[in-house]
């Protein structure tokens, strides 16, 4: 074989072996990025759970406030009309409709 073919073959073999190392390094870096991505996903899930819990507590507080302001006041008005001993059946029905 001529001398230049031997040199080209040696260079190509060197590039072939170096490419295996480069592929291994690239795979390692890719796996590292995948690990970082999975950590970010788990952190995002925790944040989403915390936000959902915060919103549910906020909604529950709003519903308690509504109950305290509207339902309890209507109930107390109804109870005062219901407990009035001077009202007869017809007067009671008219008083309840006025509420």
- Quaternary class: single chain
The number of strands is: 0
| Mean pLDDT figure | 86
Helical percent range? Answer: over 70%
Strand count, sense and barrel status of the largest sheet are: none
Structure report:
There is one protein chain. The chain contains 2 helices and no strands. The chain has helices spanning 3-82, 89-98. The longest helix has 80 residues, at 3-82. The radius of gyration is 39 Å and the shape is rod-shaped.
Lay out the secondary structure:
Blueprint (H helix, E strand, L loop, with lengths): L2 H80 L6 H10 L1
Tell me briefly what this model is:
The chain has 99 residues and is mostly helical.
Essential attributes:
99 residues; 91% helix; mainly alpha
């Amino acid at each position: 074989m001529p001398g230049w073919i031997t040199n080209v073959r040696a260079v190509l073999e060197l590039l072939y072996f170096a490419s295996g190392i480069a592929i291994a390094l690239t795979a390692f870096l890719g796996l590292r990025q995948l690990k970082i991505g999975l950590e970010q996903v788990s952190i995002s899930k925790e944040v989403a759970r915390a936000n959902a819990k915060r919103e549910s507590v906020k909604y529950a507080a709003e519903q308690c406030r509504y109950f305290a302001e509207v339902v309890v006041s209507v109930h107390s008005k109804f109870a005062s009309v219901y407990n009035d001993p001077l009202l007869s059946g017809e007067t009671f029905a008219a008083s309840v409709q006025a509420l």
